[in-house]
Write a structure and sequence with these properties.
heterodimer; A: mainly alpha; MetI-like fold; 77% helix; B: alpha/beta; D-Maltodextrin-Binding Protein, domain 2; two-stranded parallel sheet; 13 helices; 19% strand
């Protein structure tokens, strides 16, 4: 137990003294995971809206695949993407294995199904008659989609938080596709694993506390927006 | 209200765009800027530091023990400073490191499983293999020593006693160099521990495995470097040591360039030469002495290898 207090103290000490290495790792973690989350929103919200508002053969299968993807194990994603990105592999020419870009791609693959799945649910929980009413009032199809997304903004913000939470906390994919290289691809989770296996539990706990704080700060910002001027 | 949603997206975007920008391009630029001043001050006589090699990207696949003990944190920056290469150190078990070499996904390997390494060389996967250093494996266990192996002369006898006592034995189970040695020792005893309920596999690195053994009052086999480096976290004693069968020998292997045009041949050669160079060997031979009272590795370059 004393280790945890020591670790928390050390976390504050490291940040307060502006430890270059730790701050670099923290900024990289935020940059990579926010980029992956944004990419997953750009793809996930339109895809989710499309799947929620259209009926076509095979739709149920696609939605099931998306829902399965919401529980995609990060190590599995990491393994497949590593093999694809190997320099002698199919996408080897891109030369991005062991770079932050590779981690963004892997985290995007992890976050996208979460965002798509929760977007589908967010739009489908709206009253179906709302759609008819919007159309009856003369809205174009695009205007209708925009209005429905606006109506579903609360669960959509939850989707953003879930997607971000999934990627910033994962370690398996970052470790495999990034390689945990200092100053290049070491993020907070992989650094925590490394310090743990080195036996530096105090540093590992300091890194964990920093990670929790970052996740909290981002979610606090999103929650404030979500709950602002919300009628009871 | 829709503005709120837009605001959320904008918030995320504004938070991320500066970071997005720095996440990939900043990494390579930040590295030299951090290293340049130190190389200029501490090693003024290395003009090579400024002359970047044609292909500076070098992938080193190595074992967790070299990273967990902290040795690579000293050697890799030293190599980068001397030669200008940008080393991507991928620390995995020896099994995976050799597999990466076989697939030409690494340029140079630093590994410690001589039998597998010989097979690797015979199959033509490697170009050159050089002896770098050694330390030794030790059999460690709880101070109470339920199987009474303390002071036993050979690993063989110690393992037989552990089996007879059905005392808990914790194995790495990750095909690392350490586990390969462990398997070899079991084979010599003629006993098969697999599936026995006193035999557990962690599937993790040495540091984690030592913690498990300590927590469960079990025996395990560890390299001395990791044992000493993590001593503060566990309560395991050295029970069996100094058996010839327990030598832990590290070699550097350059991957056969004929396997793929993408192999950084010059970089691999430079790293191999660096590892056996007298200056590096002096650092290896002293590493850990200040912290643990004894060095963690013995420098062996140029010695007869058998």
């Amino acid at each position: 137990m004393d280790l945890i207090w020591q670790g928390m103290g050390q976390a504050f000490w490291l940040v307060a003294h502006g430890d270059r290495e730790i701050i670099g790792v923290a900024l990289l973690t935020l940059g990579v995971s926010l980029s992956a989350t944004i990419l997953s929103l750009l793809v996930g919200i339109p895809a989710g809206a499309f799947l929620a508002l259209n009926r076509f053969p095979g739709r149920q299968v696609i939605v099931s695949v998306v829902n399965t993807g919401m529980g995609l194990p990060p190590v599995v994603v990491g393994l497949f993407i590593t093999i694809l990105l190997w320099r002698n592999g199919p996408l080897g020419l891109m030369q991005i294995l062991y770079t932050p870009t590779a981690i963004v791609i892997a985290q995007f693959v992890i976050a996208a199904p979460v965002v798509i799945g929760l977007t589908i649910a967010a739009i489908q929980q709206l009253n179906p008659r709302l759609r008819l009413q919007i159309l009856a009032l003369g809205a174009s199809r695009w205007q209708m989609v925009a209005l429905l997304l606006r109506e579903a903004r609360l669960p959509l913000l939850a989707a953003i938080m879930a997607g971000f939470g999934a990627v910033i906390s994962e370690v398996g994919a970052s470790m495999m596709v990034g390689g945990n290289i200092l100053d290049e691809t070491r993020v907070l989770t992989t650094a925590t694993v490394l310090e743990t296996s080195k036996g530096n539990f105090d540093v590992a706990i300091a890194l964990s506390v920093l990670l929790l704080f970052l996740v909290f700060a981002v979610n606090l910002g999103l929650t404030l927006i979500q709950q602002r001027r919300r009628p009871l | 209200m829709f503005r709120n949603f837009i605001a959320a997206i904008l918030l995320v975007l504004t938070l991320a765009t500066p970071l997005l920008g720095c996440s990939s391009p900043a990494a390579p630029t930040a590295t030299p800027s951090q290293k340049a001043p130190s190389s200029a001050t501490s090693q003024p006589a290395t003009p090579a530091a400024n002359a970047k090699p044609a292909n500076p990207q070098l992938i080193l696949a190595t074992t967790t023990s070299t990273q967990d003990s902290g040795l690579l944190d000293v050697l890799v920056p030293m190599f980068e400073k001397q030669t200008g290469y940008d080393v991507k150190t991928i620390a995995v078990g020896t099994g995976q490191a050799l597999a990466m070499g076989e697939r030409a996904e690494a340029d140079v390997l630093l590994v410690h499983a001589p039998d597998s390494e010989k097979k690797f060389m015979q199959a033509g996967h490697g170009a050159e293999r050089k002896l770098v250093m050694h330390n030794d494996f030790i059999i460690v266990g709880p101070p109470a020593d339920p199987a009474k192996i303390k002071g036993v002369k050979t690993a063989d006898e110690a393992l037989k006693k552990i089996v007879a006592a059905k005392a808990l034995f914790v194995s790495r189970g990750d095909n690392s160099g350490t586990e390969q040695l462990e398997k070899k020792l079991w084979k010599q005893t003629g006993l098969d521990p697999k599936g026995q309920d006193w035999y557990k596999q962690t599937g993790q690195g040495m540091g984690a495995t030592l913690n498990v053994a300590s927590d469960k009052n079990g025996y395990t086999i560890s390299d001395r470097a990791t044992y000493l480096a993590t001593k503060k976290n566990h309560s395991l004693d050295i029970l069996v040591e100094a058996d010839k069968a327990l030598l832990n020998i590290y070699h550097v292997i350059t991957v056969n360039p004929q396997k793929s045009p993408k192999i950084n041949v010059a970089g691999a050669k430079a790293f191999e030469e660096f590892m056996v160079a007298p200056d590096t060997q002096a650092v290896v031979g002293k590493f850990g002495a200040d912290k643990f009272g004894q060095p963690l590795f013995f420098a062996d370059a140029g010695k007869q290898d058998n």
